[in-house]
Specification:
five-stranded parallel beta sheet; alpha/beta; 8 helices
């Protein structure tokens, strides 16, 4: 696949401010005259949105970690085949709220599935790799405090979310050229400046 777009993914703990940063990114790139499209994971397809409902519904607390993994992979594969393959050759910038790094950290590291997840992610990402991943980093307890109505994943104990943060930072050390850690504490204007600094160094 001959790719045109610059593919950016947003990662971070629950409540880390990904949605706000995505809105900023959209404005930033559009102001430069570039075409932008945004997706979320899981979701952004009919199949993906149905899978998202299953994954986040607190009525499904008995969902096994292996089933959880398979559902995330299924939603991602649908997104890639139905949306990303087309948009990556048509748009200037493609932004996705979460991608395979979430699976590596949530199911691989925090849920302890390890090597199984690494193999599965490699297989089912269909060779689609972000050009840049912005990791919004902040203490887990601070992010969770921002969320009023927690879903199935957000409702997990603090120890799980602390483990997520550790997993993300380990991943950032493993892939420093792709994953850029952004301090997500403080005012939005300050966070946007940190993001813009990364963009200027990496892209424009």
């Amino acid at each position: 696949m001959k790719k045109k777009a610059f593919f950016i993914t947003l990662e971070g703990l629950e409540g880390s401010g990904k949605s706000s940063v995505i809105r900023y990114l959209e404005s930033y790139f559009k102001a430069k005259g570039l075409s932008v499209i945004i997706f979320r994971e899981p979701g952004s397809t009919k199949v993906g949105e149905k899978i998202r409902q299953i994954l986040l519904d607190k009525a499904n607390m008995e969902l096994s970690k292996h089933t959880e993994l398979l559902l995330y992979l299924a939603a991602r594969t649908q997104l890639i085949e139905e949306q990303l393959k087309n948009t990556l050759v048509r748009y200037d910038v493609v932004i996705c709220d979460r991608f395979f790094d979430s699976t590596l950290v949530y199911q691989g590291y925090a849920l302890g599935l390890g090597a199984i997840v690494e193999k599965a992610v490699t297989m089912f990402s269909l060779k689609v790799i972000p050009d840049l991943t912005l990791l919004l980093d902040m203490p887990a307890k601070d992010g969770l405090r921002r969320i009023k109505n927690k879903d199935r994943i957000e409702s997990r104990p603090l120890v799980f979310h602390n483990k997520l943060r550790k997993g993300y930072l380990l991943l950032a050390k493993k892939y420093p050229h792709r994953i850029k850690v952004i301090d997500a504490d403080g005012r939005l204007s300050d966070i946007y400046k940190r993001v813009e600094k990364v963009l200027k160094n990496k892209f424009l």
